[in-house]
């Protein structure tokens, strides 16, 4: 008897809030991005591209003008790129306009994962969690919301070791423009020029981070742990909150 194709990780992954405070979910099992409303209703925002299902939406952010961006690697699929459930031939980064129009803005990354804007939203950072190419790329955001001028921002590969496992994953930007990226053994802090300033070492495979409280506290998802670190900076848009 043949086995039924399965989802490796059927639950939700990346989360963000829209302008009204509703929770936005990357839903891997249903291969869509949806809004969770206060009454518990789930409203799909986008569920496919050119008649095909997404792979497994992973991380999501909003721009100030209401454009939604998300990454779509195959991590939620059993077998990843070889899954019979995979319909798209690429692992992309997508733009969803407020109208619902969905555009693939990046198609050439192997395993796109975390993403973040610079404070002025002129730059889009995208992390690639590929063991053969553990890098963060940066793009110029165009007036129509698409991106151009791909270039290498940071190569995290040399930092990966048996003691510091993990590839570029969730990321956030602080008010000074430094990128805080979950990666090898913790959270890397990288300057706007791509210089590695330091690492918050968790000694765990670290998947995500987010600013909270007054905006200077960084919460970190590290394997089975949730860590909290007080920093000397603030997340973008969170000063005096």
UniProtKB/TrEMBL annotation:
Would the keyword Glycoprotein turn up in this protein's UniProt record? no
Q: Which EC class is this protein assigned?
A: hydrolase
Q: Where in the numbering of this chain does the SMP-30/Gluconolactonase/LRE-like region domain appear?
A: 51-221
SUPFAM superfamilies, alphabetized: Calcium-dependent phosphotriesterase
The answer to whether keyword Zinc applies is: yes
Question: InterPro entries of this UniProt entry?
Answer: 6-blade_b-propeller_TolB-like, SGL, SMP-30, SMP-30/CGR1_Lactonase
Which Pfam families does this one have? Answer: SGL (PF08450)
Catalytic machinery residues? 169 (proton donor/acceptor)
**Gene3D superfamilies annotated for this entry?**
TolB, C-terminal domain
EC numbers, comma separated: 3.1.1.17
List, separated by semicolons, the cofactors it needs: Zn(2+)
Q: Which UniProt keywords apply?
A: Hydrolase, Metal-binding, Zinc
Mind listing the GO molecular function terms for this protein? gluconolactonase activity; metal ion binding
Looking at the record's lineage, which domain of life comes first? Bacteria
Which residues does the annotation say bind a divalent metal cation? Answer: 113, 169
Note on cofactor = Binds 1 divalent metal cation per subunit.
Protein name in UniProt: Gluconolactonase
**From which organism does this entry originate?**
Chthoniobacter flavus Ellin428
């Amino acid at each position: 008897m043949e086995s039924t194709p399965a989802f490796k990780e059927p639950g939700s992954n990346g989360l963000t809030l829209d302008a009204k405070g509703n929770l936005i979910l990357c839903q891997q099992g249903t291969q869509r991005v949806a809004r969770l409303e206060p009454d518990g209703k789930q409203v799909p925002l986008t569920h496919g591209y050119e008649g095909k299902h997404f792979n497994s939406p992973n991380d999501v952010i909003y721009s100030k003008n209401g454009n939604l961006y998300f990454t779509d690697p195959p991590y939620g699929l059993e077998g990843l790129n070889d899954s019979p459930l995979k319909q798209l031939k690429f692992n992309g980064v997508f733009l969803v306009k407020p109208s619902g129009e969905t555009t693939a803005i990046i198609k050439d990354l192997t395993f796109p994962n975390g993403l973040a804007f610079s404070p002025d939203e002129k730059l889009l950072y995208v992390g690639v969690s590929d063991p053969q190419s553990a890098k963060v790329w940066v793009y110029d955001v165009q007036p129509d919301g698409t991106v151009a001028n791909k270039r290498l921002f940071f190569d995290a590969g040399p930092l990966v070791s048996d003691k510091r496992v993990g590839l570029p994953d969730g990321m956030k930007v602080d008010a000074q423009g430094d990128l805080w990226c979950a990666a090898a053994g913790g959270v890397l802090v990288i300057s706007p020029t791509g210089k590695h300033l330091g690492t918050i070492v968790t000694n765990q495979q670290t998947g995500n981070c987010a600013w909270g409280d007054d905006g200077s506290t960084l919460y970190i998802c590290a394997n089975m742990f949730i860590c909290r670190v007080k920093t000397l900076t603030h997340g973008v848009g969170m000063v005096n909150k």
